[in-house]
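Narrative progress, year one. The postdoctoral researcher (J.K.) led the effort to move from monomer predictions toward full complexes, under supervision of the PI. The following entry was the first complex the group processed end to end, covering 593 residues in total.
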Amino acid sequence: MTDLTNLGVKAIRDGVAGGDFTAREVAEAFNAAVAQAAELNAFIVTTPEHALAAADATDAKRAAGEDLGAMGGVPIGMKDLFASHGVQTTAASDILGGFKPEYESTVSQNLWNAGAGMLGKLNLDQFAMGSSNETSAFGNVASPWRKTGSNAAMSPGGSSGGSSAAVASRIAPAATGTDTGGSIRQPAAFTGICGIKPTYGRCSRWGVVAFASSLDQAGPMARSVEDCSIMLGAMAGFDAKDATSLKMDVPDWEAALSADLKGKKVGIPKEYRMEGTDQEILDSWEQGKAWLKDAGAEVVDVSLPHTKYALPAYYIIAPAEASSNLARYDGVRYGLRDLPDGAGLQDMYAETRAAGFGDEVKRRILIGTYVLSAGFYDAYYNQAQKVRALVSRDFENAFAECDLILAPTTPTASFPLGSLNDDPLTMYLNDVFAVPASLAGLPAMSVPASLNADGLPLGLQLVGRPFDEQSVLNAGLAIQQRAGFDHAPKKWW
Amino acid sequence: MSVNKETVAKIAGLARIKMGDDELERMVPELNNILDWVEQLGEVNVEGVEPMTAVIPNTLRLRDDVVDADPLTGGGKRDDVLANAPAAEHGFFGVPKVIE
Protein backbone atom coordinates (compact mmCIF):
# COMPACT_ATOMS: atom_id res chain seq x y z
CA MET A 1 0.00 0.00 0.00
CA THR A 2 1.18 3.53 -0.73
CA ASP A 3 2.31 5.56 2.25
CA LEU A 4 -0.93 7.15 3.35
CA THR A 5 0.86 10.15 4.87
CA ASN A 6 1.88 11.26 1.37
CA LEU A 7 -1.76 11.79 0.47
CA GLY A 8 -3.61 15.08 0.59
CA VAL A 9 -7.20 15.92 1.49
CA LYS A 10 -8.80 14.98 -1.82
CA ALA A 11 -6.86 11.74 -2.22
CA ILE A 12 -7.72 10.65 1.31
CA ARG A 13 -11.39 11.58 1.05
CA ASP A 14 -11.79 9.87 -2.33
CA GLY A 15 -9.73 6.86 -1.27
CA VAL A 16 -11.81 6.33 1.86
CA ALA A 17 -15.05 6.80 -0.06
CA GLY A 18 -13.86 4.40 -2.75
CA GLY A 19 -12.78 1.76 -0.25
CA ASP A 20 -9.06 1.84 -1.18
CA PHE A 21 -8.27 2.15 2.52
CA THR A 22 -10.19 2.87 5.70
CA ALA A 23 -10.35 6.15 7.54
CA ARG A 24 -8.95 4.33 10.55
CA GLU A 25 -5.84 3.30 8.61
CA VAL A 26 -5.35 6.91 7.58
CA ALA A 27 -5.76 8.22 11.12
CA GLU A 28 -3.36 5.61 12.48
CA ALA A 29 -0.74 6.49 9.87
CA PHE A 30 -0.90 10.21 10.65
CA ASN A 31 -1.07 9.66 14.41
CA ALA A 32 2.15 7.65 14.12
CA ALA A 33 3.80 10.34 11.96
CA VAL A 34 2.83 13.00 14.50
CA ALA A 35 4.19 10.95 17.39
CA GLN A 36 7.48 10.59 15.54
CA ALA A 37 7.90 14.28 14.77
CA ALA A 38 8.28 15.75 18.25
CA GLU A 39 11.47 17.53 17.16
CA LEU A 40 9.48 19.86 14.94
CA ASN A 41 7.47 20.98 17.99
CA ALA A 42 4.55 21.57 15.65
CA PHE A 43 1.92 20.35 18.12
CA ILE A 44 1.22 21.68 21.59
CA VAL A 45 -1.24 18.87 22.37
CA THR A 46 -1.85 15.73 20.34
CA THR A 47 -5.29 14.13 20.23
CA PRO A 48 -4.87 10.74 18.51
CA GLU A 49 -8.09 9.52 20.12
CA HIS A 50 -10.06 12.35 18.48
CA ALA A 51 -8.65 11.43 15.05
CA LEU A 52 -9.45 7.75 15.59
CA ALA A 53 -12.99 8.41 16.82
CA ALA A 54 -13.74 10.59 13.78
CA ALA A 55 -12.22 7.96 11.49
CA ASP A 56 -14.31 5.19 13.03
CA ALA A 57 -17.42 7.31 12.59
CA THR A 58 -16.55 7.78 8.92
CA ASP A 59 -15.90 4.08 8.42
CA ALA A 60 -19.22 3.26 10.09
CA LYS A 61 -21.03 5.71 7.84
CA ARG A 62 -19.46 4.14 4.79
CA ALA A 63 -20.53 0.69 5.95
CA ALA A 64 -24.05 2.05 6.35
CA GLY A 65 -23.95 3.62 2.90
CA GLU A 66 -24.26 7.17 4.23
CA ASP A 67 -22.70 10.37 2.89
CA LEU A 68 -19.18 10.80 4.31
CA GLY A 69 -18.99 14.57 4.01
CA ALA A 70 -16.60 16.87 2.16
CA MET A 71 -13.74 16.00 4.54
CA GLY A 72 -14.84 12.44 5.35
CA GLY A 73 -11.93 10.47 6.79
CA VAL A 74 -9.40 13.33 6.67
CA PRO A 75 -7.48 13.93 9.91
CA ILE A 76 -6.23 17.50 10.24
CA GLY A 77 -4.19 19.70 12.55
CA MET A 78 -6.02 22.49 14.40
CA LYS A 79 -4.22 25.73 15.11
CA ASP A 80 -4.36 26.22 18.87
CA LEU A 81 -6.28 29.44 18.43
CA PHE A 82 -9.57 27.60 17.82
CA ALA A 83 -11.53 26.61 20.91
CA SER A 84 -11.73 22.81 21.18
CA HIS A 85 -14.34 21.39 23.50
CA GLY A 86 -12.58 19.71 26.41
CA VAL A 87 -9.11 20.03 24.86
CA GLN A 88 -6.54 22.51 26.15
CA THR A 89 -6.69 25.70 24.07
CA THR A 90 -3.93 28.21 24.81
CA ALA A 91 -3.18 30.53 21.87
CA ALA A 92 0.39 29.44 22.79
CA SER A 93 0.27 31.67 25.86
CA ASP A 94 0.85 30.87 29.52
CA ILE A 95 -2.07 33.11 30.35
CA LEU A 96 -4.44 30.44 28.97
CA GLY A 97 -2.51 27.57 30.54
CA GLY A 98 -4.86 24.67 31.23
CA PHE A 99 -7.88 26.35 29.63
CA LYS A 100 -10.29 23.70 28.37
CA PRO A 101 -13.20 25.34 26.55
CA GLU A 102 -16.72 24.20 27.27
CA TYR A 103 -17.57 24.82 23.64
CA GLU A 104 -16.24 24.24 20.13
CA SER A 105 -15.39 26.99 17.65
CA THR A 106 -17.76 27.24 14.68
CA VAL A 107 -15.02 26.61 12.13
CA SER A 108 -13.73 23.48 13.84
CA GLN A 109 -17.29 22.21 14.41
CA ASN A 110 -17.97 22.75 10.69
CA LEU A 111 -14.93 20.61 9.90
CA TRP A 112 -15.99 17.81 12.26
CA ASN A 113 -19.48 17.96 10.75
CA ALA A 114 -17.87 17.48 7.34
CA GLY A 115 -16.17 14.29 8.55
CA ALA A 116 -12.70 15.54 9.52
CA GLY A 117 -10.87 14.41 12.65
CA MET A 118 -8.30 16.19 14.82
CA LEU A 119 -4.68 15.08 15.15
CA GLY A 120 -3.95 17.74 17.75
CA LYS A 121 -3.61 21.43 18.54
CA LEU A 122 -0.90 23.16 16.57
CA ASN A 123 1.74 25.51 17.92
CA LEU A 124 1.73 29.15 16.84
CA ASP A 125 3.12 32.52 17.72
CA GLN A 126 1.65 33.63 21.03
CA PHE A 127 -1.84 35.07 20.38
CA ALA A 128 -0.88 34.83 16.67
CA MET A 129 1.52 37.75 17.18
CA GLY A 130 4.65 36.97 15.25
CA SER A 131 6.05 36.04 11.85
CA SER A 132 8.49 33.27 12.78
CA ASN A 133 6.81 31.10 15.41
CA GLU A 134 9.34 32.21 18.01
CA THR A 135 6.94 33.90 20.44
CA SER A 136 5.12 30.74 21.57
CA ALA A 137 5.18 29.91 25.28
CA PHE A 138 5.60 26.30 24.14
CA GLY A 139 8.86 26.84 22.28
CA ASN A 140 9.83 27.52 18.67
CA VAL A 141 8.51 25.43 15.84
CA ALA A 142 11.24 24.21 13.49
CA SER A 143 10.56 24.19 9.78
CA PRO A 144 11.01 20.78 8.20
CA TRP A 145 13.00 22.64 5.52
CA ARG A 146 16.70 23.39 5.88
CA LYS A 147 19.11 25.17 3.63
CA THR A 148 21.01 22.82 1.36
CA GLY A 149 24.08 21.62 3.21
CA SER A 150 23.11 23.18 6.55
CA ASN A 151 21.61 21.86 9.75
CA ALA A 152 20.53 25.25 11.08
CA ALA A 153 16.90 25.30 12.24
CA MET A 154 14.80 27.49 9.96
CA SER A 155 11.62 29.40 10.70
CA PRO A 156 8.35 27.83 9.50
CA GLY A 157 6.90 31.36 9.37
CA GLY A 158 4.20 32.65 11.61
CA SER A 159 1.90 32.91 13.16
CA SER A 160 0.53 29.63 11.74
CA GLY A 161 3.97 28.01 12.01
CA GLY A 162 2.83 24.76 13.59
CA SER A 163 0.29 24.44 10.79
CA SER A 164 2.82 25.07 8.02
CA ALA A 165 5.44 22.76 9.55
CA ALA A 166 2.93 19.95 10.06
CA VAL A 167 1.57 20.10 6.51
CA ALA A 168 4.97 20.53 4.85
CA SER A 169 6.44 17.60 6.83
CA ARG A 170 3.48 15.41 5.89
CA ILE A 171 2.48 14.69 9.46
CA ALA A 172 -0.90 16.26 8.63
CA PRO A 173 -2.57 16.40 5.20
CA ALA A 174 -4.00 19.83 6.03
CA ALA A 175 -4.36 22.26 8.90
CA THR A 176 -6.34 25.28 9.88
CA GLY A 177 -4.64 28.65 9.99
CA THR A 178 -5.67 32.16 10.83
CA ASP A 179 -4.50 35.27 9.05
CA THR A 180 -4.52 38.72 10.62
CA GLY A 181 -1.69 40.26 8.60
CA GLY A 182 -0.25 37.35 6.65
CA SER A 183 -0.28 34.53 9.19
CA ILE A 184 -1.56 31.95 6.71
CA ARG A 185 0.21 33.14 3.56
CA GLN A 186 3.70 33.83 4.91
CA PRO A 187 4.13 30.45 6.65
CA ALA A 188 2.65 28.71 3.59
CA ALA A 189 5.24 30.45 1.39
CA PHE A 190 8.10 29.58 3.79
CA THR A 191 7.25 25.87 3.74
CA GLY A 192 6.23 25.23 0.13
CA ILE A 193 2.52 24.68 0.72
CA CYS A 194 -0.74 26.45 -0.19
CA GLY A 195 -2.80 28.61 2.11
CA ILE A 196 -5.77 30.87 1.50
CA LYS A 197 -7.26 33.62 3.59
CA PRO A 198 -10.83 34.10 2.34
CA THR A 199 -12.79 37.35 2.24
CA TYR A 200 -13.22 38.80 5.73
CA GLY A 201 -16.43 37.31 7.13
CA ARG A 202 -16.43 34.04 5.16
CA CYS A 203 -15.28 32.01 8.15
CA SER A 204 -16.87 32.57 11.54
CA ARG A 205 -14.64 34.06 14.22
CA TRP A 206 -16.79 32.53 16.97
CA GLY A 207 -14.57 30.48 19.25
CA VAL A 208 -11.35 31.78 17.68
CA VAL A 209 -9.12 33.48 20.26
CA ALA A 210 -9.28 37.12 19.20
CA PHE A 211 -6.20 39.09 18.17
CA ALA A 212 -7.41 41.96 15.96
CA SER A 213 -11.07 41.41 15.24
CA SER A 214 -11.39 43.59 12.15
CA LEU A 215 -8.60 41.59 10.49
CA ASP A 216 -8.71 38.03 11.88
CA GLN A 217 -9.85 35.47 9.35
CA ALA A 218 -9.49 31.68 9.33
CA GLY A 219 -8.48 29.64 6.33
CA PRO A 220 -7.04 26.29 5.24
CA MET A 221 -3.42 25.31 4.71
CA ALA A 222 -2.72 22.25 2.57
CA ARG A 223 -0.39 21.00 -0.12
CA SER A 224 -2.59 21.70 -3.14
CA VAL A 225 -5.06 24.25 -4.41
CA GLU A 226 -7.70 21.52 -4.72
CA ASP A 227 -7.25 20.56 -1.07
CA CYS A 228 -7.54 24.19 0.01
CA SER A 229 -10.74 24.65 -1.98
CA ILE A 230 -12.29 21.54 -0.40
CA MET A 231 -11.32 22.50 3.12
CA LEU A 232 -12.30 26.16 2.76
CA GLY A 233 -15.72 25.01 1.62
CA ALA A 234 -16.06 22.97 4.80
CA MET A 235 -14.86 25.80 7.07
CA ALA A 236 -16.84 28.71 5.62
CA GLY A 237 -20.46 29.66 6.11
CA PHE A 238 -22.78 32.12 7.81
CA ASP A 239 -22.80 32.05 11.60
CA ALA A 240 -25.28 34.12 13.57
CA LYS A 241 -22.87 34.06 16.53
CA ASP A 242 -20.35 36.27 14.70
CA ALA A 243 -21.63 39.80 14.05
CA THR A 244 -19.29 40.19 11.05
CA SER A 245 -20.13 36.84 9.48
CA LEU A 246 -21.17 37.14 5.82
CA LYS A 247 -24.73 36.06 5.15
CA MET A 248 -23.92 34.56 1.78
CA ASP A 249 -24.03 31.11 0.28
CA VAL A 250 -20.73 29.26 0.18
CA PRO A 251 -19.95 28.51 -3.47
CA ASP A 252 -18.78 25.03 -4.45
CA TRP A 253 -15.21 26.18 -5.04
CA GLU A 254 -13.94 22.67 -5.66
CA ALA A 255 -16.47 21.93 -8.39
CA ALA A 256 -15.82 25.23 -10.17
CA LEU A 257 -12.01 24.97 -10.16
CA SER A 258 -10.57 25.74 -13.56
CA ALA A 259 -7.04 26.62 -14.60
CA ASP A 260 -8.27 28.24 -17.80
CA LEU A 261 -7.74 31.98 -17.24
CA LYS A 262 -8.89 33.20 -20.66
CA GLY A 263 -10.53 36.59 -20.34
CA LYS A 264 -8.96 37.26 -16.92
CA LYS A 265 -6.77 40.27 -16.35
CA VAL A 266 -4.01 39.94 -13.80
CA GLY A 267 -2.64 43.15 -12.30
CA ILE A 268 1.02 43.59 -11.35
CA PRO A 269 1.30 46.30 -8.67
CA LYS A 270 4.43 48.32 -9.34
CA GLU A 271 4.72 49.43 -5.69
CA TYR A 272 5.45 45.84 -4.64
CA ARG A 273 8.84 46.12 -6.33
CA MET A 274 10.45 47.21 -3.07
CA GLU A 275 13.99 47.77 -2.00
CA GLY A 276 15.30 44.86 0.01
CA THR A 277 13.37 42.25 -1.95
CA ASP A 278 15.52 39.27 -2.96
CA GLN A 279 16.34 39.04 -6.66
CA GLU A 280 15.16 35.42 -6.52
CA ILE A 281 11.76 36.62 -5.33
CA LEU A 282 11.56 39.09 -8.20
CA ASP A 283 12.56 36.37 -10.64
CA SER A 284 9.86 34.06 -9.33
CA TRP A 285 7.34 36.90 -9.71
CA GLU A 286 8.36 37.19 -13.40
CA GLN A 287 7.96 33.45 -13.74
CA GLY A 288 4.49 33.71 -12.18
CA LYS A 289 3.46 36.30 -14.77
CA ALA A 290 4.60 33.99 -17.56
CA TRP A 291 2.66 31.07 -16.08
CA LEU A 292 -0.55 33.08 -15.84
CA LYS A 293 -0.14 34.36 -19.40
CA ASP A 294 0.36 30.78 -20.50
CA ALA A 295 -2.94 29.95 -18.79
CA GLY A 296 -4.68 32.54 -20.96
CA ALA A 297 -4.64 35.59 -18.69
CA GLU A 298 -3.72 39.07 -19.79
CA VAL A 299 -1.13 40.74 -17.57
CA VAL A 300 -1.51 44.48 -16.91
CA ASP A 301 0.34 46.98 -14.75
CA VAL A 302 -1.61 48.45 -11.87
CA SER A 303 -0.81 50.87 -9.10
CA LEU A 304 -1.50 50.56 -5.37
CA PRO A 305 -0.04 53.91 -4.31
CA HIS A 306 -0.47 53.55 -0.54
CA THR A 307 1.26 50.18 -0.30
CA LYS A 308 4.19 51.47 1.75
CA TYR A 309 1.82 52.85 4.38
CA ALA A 310 -0.12 49.63 4.85
CA LEU A 311 2.36 48.03 7.23
CA PRO A 312 2.73 51.00 9.61
CA ALA A 313 -1.07 51.41 9.59
CA TYR A 314 -1.40 47.73 10.44
CA TYR A 315 1.03 48.11 13.35
CA ILE A 316 -1.27 50.71 14.86
CA ILE A 317 -4.62 49.09 14.12
CA ALA A 318 -3.75 45.51 15.06
CA PRO A 319 -2.11 46.37 18.41
CA ALA A 320 -4.97 48.78 19.20
CA GLU A 321 -7.53 46.03 18.69
CA ALA A 322 -5.32 43.54 20.51
CA SER A 323 -4.96 45.76 23.56
CA SER A 324 -8.72 45.91 23.77
CA ASN A 325 -9.32 42.20 23.03
CA LEU A 326 -6.69 41.00 25.47
CA ALA A 327 -8.15 43.05 28.32
CA ARG A 328 -10.27 39.96 29.01
CA TYR A 329 -7.30 38.08 30.49
CA ASP A 330 -7.75 39.23 34.05
CA GLY A 331 -7.18 36.15 36.17
CA VAL A 332 -10.87 35.99 37.04
CA ARG A 333 -12.70 33.96 34.45
CA TYR A 334 -10.23 31.48 32.95
CA GLY A 335 -6.57 30.71 32.61
CA LEU A 336 -3.78 31.91 34.82
CA ARG A 337 -4.25 33.77 38.10
CA ASP A 338 -1.28 35.23 39.93
CA LEU A 339 -2.41 36.44 43.34
CA PRO A 340 0.44 37.26 45.73
CA ASP A 341 -0.39 37.12 49.44
CA GLY A 342 -2.44 40.07 50.53
CA ALA A 343 -2.73 41.46 47.01
CA GLY A 344 -5.84 43.36 45.94
CA LEU A 345 -7.81 43.04 42.71
CA GLN A 346 -5.76 45.58 40.74
CA ASP A 347 -2.51 43.92 41.81
CA MET A 348 -3.91 40.57 40.78
CA TYR A 349 -4.68 41.87 37.28
CA ALA A 350 -1.22 43.36 36.85
CA GLU A 351 0.63 40.35 38.29
CA THR A 352 -1.41 37.86 36.28
CA ARG A 353 -0.86 39.72 33.02
CA ALA A 354 2.84 40.23 33.74
CA ALA A 355 3.31 36.51 34.36
CA GLY A 356 1.05 35.25 31.58
CA PHE A 357 1.86 37.34 28.50
CA GLY A 358 5.08 36.97 26.51
CA ASP A 359 7.28 39.90 25.50
CA GLU A 360 5.88 40.42 22.02
CA VAL A 361 2.31 40.35 23.36
CA LYS A 362 3.19 42.90 26.04
CA ARG A 363 4.89 45.10 23.47
CA ARG A 364 1.81 45.11 21.27
CA ILE A 365 -0.57 45.70 24.17
CA LEU A 366 1.52 48.71 25.21
CA ILE A 367 1.61 50.12 21.68
CA GLY A 368 -2.12 49.60 21.37
CA THR A 369 -2.85 51.17 24.72
CA TYR A 370 -0.68 54.14 23.80
CA VAL A 371 -2.22 54.80 20.38
CA LEU A 372 -5.71 54.62 21.86
CA SER A 373 -4.94 56.82 24.86
CA ALA A 374 -6.29 60.33 25.29
CA GLY A 375 -4.32 62.84 23.25
CA PHE A 376 -2.90 60.29 20.81
CA TYR A 377 -6.02 58.64 19.45
CA ASP A 378 -6.44 61.08 16.56
CA ALA A 379 -2.79 61.31 15.62
CA TYR A 380 -2.25 57.56 15.56
CA TYR A 381 -5.38 55.43 15.54
CA ASN A 382 -7.69 57.65 13.52
CA GLN A 383 -4.94 58.46 11.06
CA ALA A 384 -4.24 54.75 10.61
CA GLN A 385 -7.93 54.02 10.02
CA LYS A 386 -7.98 56.72 7.34
CA VAL A 387 -4.90 55.27 5.71
CA ARG A 388 -6.60 51.90 5.85
CA ALA A 389 -9.49 53.37 3.87
CA LEU A 390 -6.99 54.60 1.27
CA VAL A 391 -5.27 51.21 1.04
CA SER A 392 -8.66 49.64 0.48
CA ARG A 393 -9.57 52.28 -2.12
CA ASP A 394 -6.31 51.51 -3.97
CA PHE A 395 -7.49 47.95 -4.43
CA GLU A 396 -10.94 49.09 -5.59
CA ASN A 397 -9.29 51.28 -8.21
CA ALA A 398 -6.95 48.51 -9.30
CA PHE A 399 -9.83 46.06 -9.61
CA ALA A 400 -11.44 48.42 -12.11
CA GLU A 401 -8.55 47.44 -14.39
CA CYS A 402 -7.91 43.83 -13.46
CA ASP A 403 -9.59 40.79 -11.92
CA LEU A 404 -6.72 39.58 -9.79
CA ILE A 405 -3.41 40.75 -8.44
CA LEU A 406 -0.20 38.73 -8.57
CA ALA A 407 2.63 39.54 -6.16
CA PRO A 408 5.27 37.77 -4.13
CA THR A 409 4.04 36.49 -0.77
CA THR A 410 7.16 37.51 1.16
CA PRO A 411 10.24 39.68 0.47
CA THR A 412 12.62 36.81 1.37
CA ALA A 413 12.62 33.06 1.84
CA SER A 414 12.62 31.55 5.34
CA PHE A 415 15.39 32.63 7.73
CA PRO A 416 17.17 30.78 10.54
CA LEU A 417 15.37 30.76 13.89
CA GLY A 418 16.82 33.45 16.12
CA SER A 419 18.26 35.54 13.28
CA LEU A 420 15.71 38.37 13.34
CA ASN A 421 15.03 38.62 17.04
CA ASP A 422 17.07 41.73 17.79
CA ASP A 423 14.68 44.18 16.25
CA PRO A 424 10.89 43.72 16.16
CA LEU A 425 10.70 46.02 13.11
CA THR A 426 12.76 43.82 10.79
CA MET A 427 10.51 40.94 11.76
CA TYR A 428 7.40 43.00 10.97
CA LEU A 429 8.73 43.74 7.46
CA ASN A 430 8.21 40.08 6.56
CA ASP A 431 4.54 40.80 6.13
CA VAL A 432 4.95 43.84 3.91
CA PHE A 433 3.34 42.12 0.90
CA ALA A 434 0.69 40.29 2.91
CA VAL A 435 -0.73 43.07 5.06
CA PRO A 436 -2.39 45.26 2.39
CA ALA A 437 -4.90 42.53 1.43
CA SER A 438 -5.62 41.98 5.13
CA LEU A 439 -6.37 45.64 5.70
CA ALA A 440 -8.78 45.54 2.77
CA GLY A 441 -10.39 42.23 3.84
CA LEU A 442 -9.68 40.63 0.46
CA PRO A 443 -9.27 36.94 -0.38
CA ALA A 444 -5.58 36.15 -0.83
CA MET A 445 -3.62 32.97 -1.34
CA SER A 446 -0.04 31.81 -1.40
CA VAL A 447 0.98 28.97 -3.69
CA PRO A 448 4.47 27.46 -3.90
CA ALA A 449 6.41 28.51 -7.00
CA SER A 450 9.95 27.22 -6.81
CA LEU A 451 13.01 26.59 -4.64
CA ASN A 452 15.67 29.25 -4.29
CA ALA A 453 19.41 28.65 -4.58
CA ASP A 454 19.50 27.54 -0.93
CA GLY A 455 16.85 24.92 -1.59
CA LEU A 456 14.14 26.85 0.28
CA PRO A 457 10.58 27.32 -1.04
CA LEU A 458 9.30 30.59 -2.48
CA GLY A 459 5.62 31.46 -2.73
CA LEU A 460 3.51 33.58 -5.05
CA GLN A 461 0.52 35.50 -3.82
CA LEU A 462 -2.83 36.04 -5.55
CA VAL A 463 -5.28 38.65 -4.30
CA GLY A 464 -8.87 38.83 -5.53
CA ARG A 465 -11.94 41.00 -5.30
CA PRO A 466 -14.16 40.64 -2.24
CA PHE A 467 -16.07 37.32 -2.35
CA ASP A 468 -14.13 36.13 -5.41
CA GLU A 469 -12.17 33.29 -3.85
CA GLN A 470 -12.88 31.32 -7.01
CA SER A 471 -10.67 33.48 -9.23
CA VAL A 472 -7.91 33.34 -6.63
CA LEU A 473 -8.12 29.54 -6.44
CA ASN A 474 -8.30 29.20 -10.22
CA ALA A 475 -5.18 31.29 -10.76
CA GLY A 476 -3.52 29.34 -7.95
CA LEU A 477 -4.36 26.14 -9.79
CA ALA A 478 -2.90 27.53 -13.03
CA ILE A 479 0.35 28.30 -11.21
CA GLN A 480 0.37 24.94 -9.44
CA GLN A 481 0.01 23.05 -12.73
CA ARG A 482 2.84 24.99 -14.34
CA ALA A 483 5.19 25.20 -11.37
CA GLY A 484 4.96 21.45 -10.81
CA PHE A 485 6.18 22.05 -7.27
CA ASP A 486 6.50 18.55 -5.85
CA HIS A 487 9.47 19.16 -3.60
CA ALA A 488 9.32 17.82 -0.07
CA PRO A 489 11.70 18.57 2.76
CA LYS A 490 14.26 15.84 3.43
CA LYS A 491 13.24 14.01 6.61
CA TRP A 492 15.59 14.73 9.54
CA TRP A 493 13.15 14.60 12.46
CA MET B 1 6.45 61.74 19.34
CA SER B 2 8.44 59.49 21.58
CA VAL B 3 7.95 57.92 24.97
CA ASN B 4 10.14 57.97 28.06
CA LYS B 5 10.26 55.60 30.99
CA GLU B 6 7.55 57.48 32.89
CA THR B 7 5.20 57.32 29.92
CA VAL B 8 5.82 53.60 29.44
CA ALA B 9 5.14 53.06 33.15
CA LYS B 10 1.88 54.95 32.79
CA ILE B 11 0.83 52.92 29.73
CA ALA B 12 1.75 49.67 31.47
CA GLY B 13 -0.41 50.80 34.39
CA LEU B 14 -3.33 51.51 32.07
CA ALA B 15 -2.84 48.11 30.45
CA ARG B 16 -2.64 46.45 33.91
CA ILE B 17 0.72 44.83 33.23
CA LYS B 18 3.20 44.99 36.10
CA MET B 19 6.66 45.95 34.86
CA GLY B 20 9.89 46.33 36.78
CA ASP B 21 12.46 49.05 36.12
CA ASP B 22 14.56 46.83 33.87
CA GLU B 23 11.63 45.85 31.74
CA LEU B 24 10.42 49.45 31.45
CA GLU B 25 13.87 50.55 30.36
CA ARG B 26 14.08 47.79 27.80
CA MET B 27 10.66 48.70 26.39
CA VAL B 28 11.47 52.42 25.89
CA PRO B 29 13.76 52.08 22.84
CA GLU B 30 11.69 49.20 21.43
CA LEU B 31 8.50 51.21 21.55
CA ASN B 32 10.22 54.32 20.24
CA ASN B 33 11.58 52.43 17.24
CA ILE B 34 8.08 51.31 16.37
CA LEU B 35 6.54 54.73 17.04
CA ASP B 36 9.22 56.48 14.92
CA TRP B 37 8.45 54.12 12.10
CA VAL B 38 4.65 54.54 12.20
CA GLU B 39 5.21 58.31 12.26
CA GLN B 40 5.46 58.18 8.43
CA LEU B 41 1.66 57.85 8.30
CA GLY B 42 1.60 61.59 9.01
CA GLU B 43 2.83 62.19 5.42
CA VAL B 44 -0.34 60.76 3.92
CA ASN B 45 -2.93 63.23 2.75
CA VAL B 46 -6.14 62.03 4.35
CA GLU B 47 -8.22 65.12 3.73
CA GLY B 48 -11.86 64.17 3.36
CA VAL B 49 -11.17 60.49 4.08
CA GLU B 50 -13.42 58.80 6.62
CA PRO B 51 -11.68 56.39 8.99
CA MET B 52 -12.46 52.84 7.93
CA THR B 53 -14.52 50.88 10.42
CA ALA B 54 -15.68 47.91 8.35
CA VAL B 55 -13.64 46.31 5.59
CA ILE B 56 -16.47 44.47 3.92
CA PRO B 57 -19.81 46.22 3.71
CA ASN B 58 -22.12 44.40 6.09
CA THR B 59 -25.15 45.36 8.11
CA LEU B 60 -25.45 44.54 11.77
CA ARG B 61 -28.21 42.04 12.29
CA LEU B 62 -30.68 41.89 15.13
CA ARG B 63 -31.41 38.47 16.52
CA ASP B 64 -34.93 37.31 17.26
CA ASP B 65 -36.16 38.73 20.55
CA VAL B 66 -36.60 35.38 22.24
CA VAL B 67 -34.92 33.75 25.20
CA ASP B 68 -32.01 31.48 24.23
CA ALA B 69 -32.38 32.25 20.52
CA ASP B 70 -29.10 30.39 20.09
CA PRO B 71 -28.71 27.59 22.59
CA LEU B 72 -24.90 27.85 22.42
CA THR B 73 -24.85 31.46 23.53
CA GLY B 74 -28.10 31.57 25.52
CA GLY B 75 -28.56 31.34 29.26
CA GLY B 76 -28.50 28.40 31.66
CA LYS B 77 -24.74 27.95 31.28
CA ARG B 78 -23.55 28.95 34.73
CA ASP B 79 -21.52 25.85 35.41
CA ASP B 80 -19.94 25.93 31.94
CA VAL B 81 -19.06 29.58 32.38
CA LEU B 82 -17.44 28.90 35.74
CA ALA B 83 -15.72 25.67 34.72
CA ASN B 84 -12.38 27.32 33.90
CA ALA B 85 -12.39 29.98 36.62
CA PRO B 86 -9.26 29.92 38.80
CA ALA B 87 -11.51 30.46 41.85
CA ALA B 88 -15.24 29.79 41.56
CA GLU B 89 -17.29 29.76 44.73
CA HIS B 90 -21.01 29.42 45.38
CA GLY B 91 -21.78 29.84 41.70
CA PHE B 92 -19.76 33.04 41.34
CA PHE B 93 -16.31 34.12 40.22
CA GLY B 94 -14.11 34.57 43.27
CA VAL B 95 -11.89 37.66 43.49
CA PRO B 96 -9.85 39.26 46.25
CA LYS B 97 -11.72 41.61 48.55
CA VAL B 98 -12.44 44.90 46.76
CA ILE B 99 -14.34 46.76 49.50
CA GLU B 100 -12.50 47.70 52.68
